[in-house]
Amino acid sequence: MTLTGHSLACKRGENLIFSEINFSVIPGSICFVKGPNGSGKSTLLRLLAGLLGTAEGLLTLDEIDITNDREIRAEKFLYLGHQNVLKQHLTVREQISFWQGITKKCYDFETDPMNVQPILNKKLHQCSEGQGRRVALARLTIEMKKFWLLDEPTASLDTANIQLFKSILEDHCSNGGSAVIATHDNIGIKPSSDIHLSLDKSSLQRNNPFI
Amino acid sequence: MNPLLYILSYEIKASTAGRSLFLSTSFFIIVVLTANISMNQFGIRADKNSVSILWIALAMSALLSINMIFQNDYDDGTLDWFMLSPISLETIVILKAVAHWVTTCLPMMLLTPIVCVSMGINFNSSLWILLVMMIGTPAISFISTIGSALTLGERANHLLLPIFILPTFLPILVFGIKISMLVTNSVYDSMAFLIMLAISLFCIAITPFITAIIIKVHYT
């Protein structure tokens, strides 16, 4: 299943955030969104997830236009933004069992890919930023969606936990999943393609081997 | 279990764990008791006619937790998640309103027979007041979702909300207070009950759509 963007553009009010974004993400590949702060990386991910409307361009999944298709996106995409989607007063265990219940899938406590076992009984507001992020990333392994749209997934993670994230990402890709990731950190994975965003709207460049 | 029930129990758990339950219920008791005591100071005996205090205290305590309905979800990203989930936003709003009712209005209602004692209302009448509240409070919860959605992301929402949401409670308050006064005087007017039920059901029927539209507008 290939996700392709055809000259995507996004406007907030009168401001053009970006335009002429072309990319394609084939199964099992990772696409990094690169660019300086304020160049619209988060906006692009929110647009791909369907939280923002597309001003111009098309988003297709295997040649099928999904630019305005909520159901397909809900089924295939998993968006994780800056926020962790965690309730501060619940314990990690309650949070994970909620996701398990709603998706009817299980978190693999045996292998514990995001190492949440030690903090299971902690409340989220007692967890550190990095621990919270780990729990948020654990959701990725529960929901099992084809496309991951991740905004700074490794923010506040230490090197050991970045390695954990790297391994779930590699697992995901070897199972035919793909990911679009905006990050400044060095995860240690070579992306198969990049989307470059720049602050200067006149020179929006593209660098994609698939186009 | 149905995913909707999961979301509902999750919502209830998340808001009760946040101690907001304790906050609005104790606010309710404090307002009622303070009003009763201060009225006694001026020589006006707090009696069954002061039942309106009960309703005003109820509305104000419900206001306290209004911004919890969507603001927390907005801050922690849960609202994004709801927006992207296959469940329609209208359904989410209904679940939110039900969770708000269970965590804020229900505990206050259950305490009503106890605080009624401080007003000299007999137990039988207080049960009738409880019934009237049972009819009226769901509408309060549902209307609250509109206010919460309107002030989404608005930093000054703590002050803004009461100003324009409290007046929208008026139809419920007017009928609630009137019927409560009647039942404490042992007058049971079934027509008034029915009109109040109609107002309440009307609010419940239309608010999910309005709130969902407001949230969608906020996102575009």
Strand order of the largest sheet of chain A: 6-7-8-3-9
Largest interface: A-B, 27 and 23 residues
Strand content of chain A: 15-25%
**Oligomer type:** heterodimer
CATH topology of chain A: Rossmann fold
CATH architecture level-2 label of chain A: 3-Layer(aba) Sandwich
**Rounded to an integer, what's the Rg of chain B over CA atoms?**
18 Å
Span between termini of chain A: 16 Å
Terminal-residue CA separation of chain B: 33 Å
What is the helix tally of chain A? Answer: 5
- Specify the number of helices of chain B: 10
Helix % of chain A is 25-40%
Q: Please tally the β strands of chain B and state the result.
A: 0
Give a quick account of the main beta sheet of chain B: strands, pairing sense, barrel closure.
none
Helix and strand composition category of chain A? alpha/beta
Structural class of chain B: mainly alpha
CATH superfamily of chain A: P-loop containing nucleotide triphosphate hydrolases
In total, how many domains does the architecture of chain B comprise? 1
* Global geometry of chain A: globular
CATH C-level class of chain A = Alpha Beta
Mean pLDDT of chain B: 87
Structural overview:
- The complex is a heterodimer of chains A (211) and B (220).
- Chain A has a single domain (3-203), classed as Rossmann fold, CATH 3.40.50.
- Helices cover 28% and strands 25% of the residues of chain A.
- Chain A contains 5 helices and 9 strands.
- In chain A, the strands form 2 sheets. Chain A has a 5-stranded parallel sheet with strand order 6-7-8-3-9, sandwiched between helices. A 4-stranded antiparallel sheet of chain A has the order 2-1-4-5, with helices on one face.
- In chain A, helix 3 (92-103) runs parallel beside helix 4.
- Chain A is globular.
- The model of chain A is unreliable at 202-211 (pLDDT under 50).
- Chain B contains 10 helices and no strands.
- Chain B has helices spanning 3-17, 20-41, 51-64, 71-76, 78-84, 89-117, 123-150, 157-165, 170-184, 190-219.
- Chain B is globular and about 55 Å long.
- The two termini of chain B are 33 Å apart.
- The interface between A and B is medium-sized, with 27 and 23 residues.
